[in-house]
Amino acid sequence: MMKKRKTEWRVIVGRATGILVLLGGMLLAVGLCDAAAPPDYSVPSIFDPRSTPAESIYRLSHFVLAITGLIFLVVFTLLTYAVIKFRRSPGDDKREPAQVYGSTQIELAWTIIPILIVVVLFLATARVIHAIQDAPKPATALEVTAIGHQFWWEFRYPALGIVTANELHVPVSSPAHPAPTFLKLLSADTDHSFWVPQLAGKTDLIPNRVNDTWIDPRQTGVYLGQCAQYCGTQHAKMLLRVSVDSPEDFDAWVRAQSQLANQDTKETAGRRVFETTACINCHAISGTAATGRFGPDLTHLMSRQTIASGAAENTTENLHTWIQNPDAIKPGSLMPAMKLSDPDLDALVRYLETLR
Predict the structure, then answer these.
(1) What is the pLDDT of residue 4?
(2) What does the alpha-carbon distance between residue 82 and residue 74 come to, in Å, rounded to a whole number?
(3) How far is CA 345 from CA 179, 312, 323, in A?
(4) pTM of the entire predicted model
(5) Residues 225, 313: Cα–Cα separation, whole Å
(6) What integer best gives the mean pLDDT of the chain?
(7) Is residue 142 predicted with pLDDT exceeding 50?
């Protein structure tokens, strides 16, 4: 009998240890996610907020985790107590234990407490949603129209007359000099979702509907995001980059983007290739006959760090590959393979590299 009791206790201790190890692993994972990311950390995290909307969501997530964690501990404690207290003993006659019915206090407790928890979580969430969605727009705000395409981003600055793609530039904001960026979100084809975890929550882009979001980054740098709504074959590579610039750097970027495309007379052969092939039907270059809107505006192509909506670095080699065989970089994209001859391809790439 003593041997059987020891075996039962070993099983109980083993199971309890396993549960505690699992709980410890969960707490460790939360701690790692919550740790501040180093400056060169390339994976965006909702636990490293750099903007007011993201900070509000971060605080709400901690509040929700605290409540749900407390619920877990209470349930785990009661379950452990019940397993140990009412485990089968060697002398058990297998009769059903005494049942207690009609406890008004217990029934009130398991009815009222969950209702209170749901109400508190609802009110906290509604408060954050209201604060973000109904935030007043100051006179110093920058307005940007973001349009989702399969599978790239178009950014328009109506007041500045600038059109760019995939890499959004905004000024840094501070309490002393607030400069938030308000984004009008549109879709050109299907559902998309604008998400930069360190700057704001997800907001959908829906055809024939206008949605809005805003950010006020407090620190310069590049913040990564992507489409968070499945939108087709290359949804996973519909990436975006938000470059938060100092006021001086942002003003310099605006001046550069406001210029017409560089007209390098040495690359007339490449320009001729661009204007006499299907390129002109999809892309726009200011100061030329190219006014296409199906693809990104290429007026200042080489000012961007990436091509194919962040799928590849903006290098000479990648430009060659992207033009000649887009599926090698982004299978299923809507960019057609141009199938140019080597001389024409080289001339076209040299011309594109002058667009800064």
Answers:
(1) 52
(2) 12
(3) 43, 19, 8
(4) 0.81
(5) 16
(6) 87
(7) yes
Distance in angstroms (rounded) separating the CA atoms of residues 345 and 263: 19
Please report how many Cα atoms fall inside a 13 Å half-sphere around the Cα of residue 21, on the Cβ side. Answer: 6
Of the candidates 143, 144, 140, which has an alpha carbon nearest to the alpha carbon of residue 176? 140
CA–centroid distance for 111 within its chain: 38
Identify which of 295, 268, 269 has the alpha carbon closest to the alpha carbon of residue 282. 295
Domain boundaries, the chain: 2-87+103-133, 265-352
Answer CATH for 265-352 from 3.40.1790.10, 1.20.810.10, 2.60.40.420, 2.120.10.30: 2.60.40.420
Per-residue model confidence as pLDDT tens digits over 206-265:
999 999 999 999 999 999 999 999 999 999 999 999 999 999 999 999 999 999 888 777
Model confidence at 72: pLDDT above 90:
yes
Cβ burial, residue 66 (10 Å; 0-12/13-18/19+): exposed
> Mean pLDDT across the stretch 48-68?
94
Total residues found in the chain within this entry: 356
The torsion angle over the Cα atoms of residues 343, 347, 349 and 355, rounded to 10 degrees, is 180
Q: Report how far apart the first and last C-alpha atoms of the chain are (Å, whole number).
A: 85
Tabulate helix, strand, coil % of the chain (nearest 5).
Answer: 45, 15, 40
